[in-house]
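User: I'm new to structure prediction. If I give you an amino acid sequence, what do you actually give back? Let's try with this one:
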Amino acid sequence: MKFVRLTNCILHVMLKKLKRSFCDSFDVMGTIRVACDEIMREHHTGHTECVYEKLLSLYLYERCIPFLTQVDCFIKKGETHVLVGRIDMEIAHNTILELKVGTHVKTQDIQQLLKYVNAKKASGMNIKHAAVVCFKTNNTVEVAELCV
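Assistant: Good question. You get back a string of structure tokens that encode the predicted 3D arrangement of the chain. For your 148 residues, that looks like this:
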């Protein structure tokens, strides 16, 4: 019985290291830029944020890149957790994306993303990248990356 537990523990540690090395080993933001450009080229403008989110999710899924969508983001106030918003996408355990549809990235979009970055960092998450991705009405994509 002890051997099985020890084996499971070793496997868990190995998987954790493998996941960490995978997430650190590829260019997350480069992949996101390529994905968004490809999505815009194939599907053009005129869709909702939700449609672009699903298309980006599919792109990441097909390439076995770990991601979550619509992640609740909390801050801790004393013993209480307070919801500050919902992150559109969390990719590779170290990247946060806020997706938008419009003419350009706005100051309020950057402020919203910054609020999420600060909350995630306070919870102990190691954020390496954060960006607002705007699927623009002129068939282009604007990626505004924060320095984190």
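You can read the tokens as a compact description of the fold. Here is one thing that stands out. The mean pLDDT is 87.
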